[in-house]
Write a structure and sequence with these properties.
27% strand; Meso-diaminopimelate D-dehydrogenase (chains A, B); alpha/beta; 4-stranded mixed beta sheet; homodimer
Chain lengths: 328, 328
């Protein structure tokens, strides 16, 4: 019987709650404590009797917790937290500011190498599973073109932008991939496309009483950097409708590579996700990667790793023999 | 500048020809020689001036060829060839008799361990990419169900069975996934399904002159182990139509996992292939895996590996830095 992997969660927002639930689905793992910057005694576990600790107490869990799963945001939390925690623990995070990944990698790699720990960085679904599929498809079909579509899903940044428009009380924005474009690519075409040609923006807006709806619509569809370049639809709804129909956090998308082999033989590789909860799914990827990171650490591996560096078999609780027999 | 990876091909059927073409798409690789059991001077390369050698000369290439890509069949060729060649070279093969993989693994692992070589076994798309996606999806969504669909594609075994029916001159059988079932699963249902409920069988048959077509149709659709349990369609066509429309070797399929996280939150992961040429695509996977095997061998790795054991980044010619910057 293998020893249970002891997990700590840092941050208890949607992602941290998702990790708590995902650990409960994996019998080879055990949640040791949840670390927070808030008052730990004011937090209540949604998934059972988890123990809360102030983040400043993390150090006292050195040698007890096998992997810390960091559930903070990429803007300010992770660049600060990951290197500090990597100097004490194996870690996993979902740092997703694509442009800053190289610099984040160097920072975390240095901290983890020095401490002899292992950190899986920038995992989840994009970056994460989508990245893995972009790489795999490009390696197999070097002559080709790949397309990433996101959605249908809520974009937090665009929803925030809607809510800043005068007269708007509340609102949600969905990014929606353009089905006609997906169909063209699936049929073997390889068009040149900007992100805006691949996606629509669907807005659901609750207006303040007496607000000029047409003025709100105009303000949204002409907003630079957010909506001006896109086909944007604005739907006005009531607060009740918003609560009833738009509280979920669905997301998903596709990575499609259309390539050729031999004498112009068309070959298409596609990976897709359809998620009712983006944070719960991301959490499930983090938990599987925590298992892989723990194993590599047990074998003596140190430093920062991405999903590109993990033998995928390490994400499963099954042995290599079982995997060859049952899944190959 | 990295050294070019020197490749040998063993077997020059459709798969071997596909590997030759795939190597031409990968500038970090070089085809050193093609090994055959036939008279080497009677073979002509379809893809350029490749050198042919009799298989018995393989030993003289020890230390020259970095990876041997074995393109023989799983029934008799590979169980014999892989262990022998693994005792001299790093190898890659597409051994696809699922039930015999554990025993094949042990055989090859022992030979490769003893010789200090590395063998990537049972790769391609199923086993291979489909296996990888079954594993990945199960590791991320431990509570769920997965479905593998094959096709639309030619089944060699079923095409052979058609051709054995009296009165049949020629014929091709396509395995076709049932769209309505795929749609149910994509929408979140998780039905219990037998292979025969997920696939149709479409037959294109050239009858001999004067043959009783209805009798042929009956003989096919009632054939035990092949067609009796399936919805089977028999289409009679002319020899010209067969040549014009059914000479390709298309294939593909889907691996779909429908799982739940948290409190019954539905999450769907899907991987799909749409291939105009099954052997050329399989060949492209073998070539990318040859690169990964070579790298692991350069790092001192030995023994048999499957796609579950390969860090996926090793399949790409790009450096880890480039991959993090461009694809993560």
């Amino acid at each position: 019987m293998q020893k249970t992997i002891k997990i700590g969660i840092v941050g208890y927002g949607n992602l941290g709650k998702g990790v708590e639930k995902a650990i409960a689905q994996n019998p080879d793992m055990e949640l040791t404590a949840i670390f927070t910057r808030r008052q730990p005694d004011q937090l209540q576990s949604t998934g059972g009797g988890a123990k809360f600790e102030h983040i400043s107490a993390a150090e006292t869990y050195k040698g007890i917790i096998d992997v810390m799963i960091l559930c903070g945001g990429s803007a300010t939390d992770l660049p600060e937290q990951t290197p500090v925690l990597a100097s004490m623990f194996n870690t996993v995070d979902s740092f997703d500011t694509h442009a800053k990944i190289p610099e984040f990698y160097e920072l975390v790699n240095a901290a983890a190498k020095q401490a002899g720990t292992l950190s899986v960085i920038s995992t989840g679904w994009d970056p994460g599973l989508f990245s893995l599929n972009r790489l795999l498809a490009e390696a197999i079909l070097p002559e080709g073109k790949d397309y990433t579509f996101w959605g249908k899903g809520v974009s937090q940044g665009h929803s925030d932008a809607i809510r800043r428009v005068p007269g708007v009380k509340a609102g949600v924005q969905y990014t929606v991939p353009v089905q006609a474009v997906i169909d063209r690519i699936r049929s073997g075409e390889t068009p040149e496309l900007e992100t805006r040609e691949k996606h629509l923006r669907d807005c659901y807006v609750v207006a303040e009483e007496g607000a000029d709806l047409e003025q709100i619509r105009q303000a949204i569809v002409t907003m630079e950097n957010y909506f001006a370049d896109y086909d944007t639809t604005v739907n006005f709804i009531t607060e009740e409708q918003l609560k009833a129909e738009h509280q979920g956090m669905p997301h998903g998308g596709f990575v499609i590579r259309s390539g050729v082999t031999g004498e112009n033989t068309k070959q298409i590789i596609e990976f897709g996700l359809k998620l009712e909860s983006n944070p719960e799914f991301t959490a499930s990827v983090l938990v599987a990667c925590a298992r892989a990171g723990y194993r590599i650490s047990q074998e003596g591996g140190t430093g920062a790793k991405t999903i590109f560096d993990l033998p995928i078999g390490y994400l499963s609780p099954k042995s290599a023999e079982e995997l060859r027999r049952d899944l190959l």
